[in-house]
Design goal:
globular; alpha/beta; 9 helices; 202 residues; two-stranded antiparallel ribbon; seven-stranded mixed sheet
C-alpha cells in the first residue's frame, strides 16, 4: 500500500445516496485477469456518453479532473462486494473518500487496499460538500497523523475518528501481511522454541 500521511488535493462532491459498486465499477470491466485498465472502468457509464466524456459528470469538469478526494453521500459502495471498485477508484487517482457512512464490505476492501474512508457527522459533511462544490476553493488537506481535514483555503479544520490499527496501517503503508511480518523474528523464535520443547513434532 502507498503510505498516507498528509495529502493535499482537490475534492469533488458526489452526494447521491446509495452509490453502488456497479456504478463505481460496471460489470463489463470485471472480465480481466489482473487489475489493469480499471481506471477506465471507474464510473465509466457516468464519465462517458457515446464514447465521449460526459460534461455533466463532475470529474470531467474544470477544477475536478484531478480530484484525489470524493465527498460522497450515505451508504457509498453498497451492492456487490467487488474489490475492483476500490482498485478502479485508486487508478483514477482517488486517495480518500469522505462521507457519513460506507457499505461494510466496501469499507473493508478500501482499508485492505489503502483507500482511506472517513466518516463524518452529516452536518459537518454538508459544510464540507458545499465548499467542495465551489471549484475555486475545493482544495482539501487530510492530515492522518493529526486526524484533521483542513478546507476552505485553510480557514476551517475538522477532526475525524479512525481505528488505531487502521490509522497505523495507512501511515506505514502496511497491509495485513506486512503488518504480520513486523513480528517475523518473534514468530521464528517461537517456532524454534516450540520445536525444542516438543521434539516429536519434527
Amino acid at each position: 500500500m502507498i503510505p498516507f500521511d498528509q495529502v493535499t488535493g482537490a475534492a469533488a462532491p458526489m452526494m447521491a445516496p446509495n452509490v453502488d459498486t456497479d456504478v463505481i465499477m460496471p460489470k463489463m470491466f470485471l472480465k480481466g485477469v489482473d487489475r489493469g485498465g480499471l481506471g477506465e472502468g471507474a464510473f465509466n457509464l457516468l464519465r462517458f456518453s457515446g464514447g465521449r466524456p460526459n460534461p455533466e459528470f463532475v470529474l470531467n469538469q474544470d477544477g475536478y479532473r484531478d480530484a484525489c478526494f470524493l465527498v460522497v453521500g450515505p451508504n457509498f459502495g453498497c451492492g456487490s462486494s467487488r474489490e475492483h471498485a476500490v482498485w478502479g477508484l485508486q487508478q483514477l487517482g482517488i486517495r480518500a473518500l469522505i462521507g457519513t457512512s460506507f457499505a461494510g464490505i466496501f469499507n473493508d476492501n478500501c482499508a485492505n487496499n489503502g483507500l482511506l474512508t472517513i466518516s463524518l457527522d452529516p452536518l459537518v459533511l454538508t459544510e464540507l460538500a458545499e465548499v467542495a462544490a465551489d471549484s475555486s476553493r475545493n482544495e482539501v488537506t487530510i492530515d492522518l497523523a493529526a486526524q484533521t481535514i483542513r478546507f476552505d483555503r485553510g480557514r476551517r479544520s475538522i477532526m475525524f475518528d479512525i481505528e488505531l490499527a487502521r490509522k497505523e496501517a495507512f501511515l506505514t503503508g502496511r497491509d495485513f501481511i506486512a503488518s504480520t511480518l513486523v513480528f517475523a523474528d518473534d514468530i521464528h523464535a517461537f517456532e524454534a522454541r516450540y520445536r525444542a520443547e516438543n521434539p516429536w513434532i519434527g
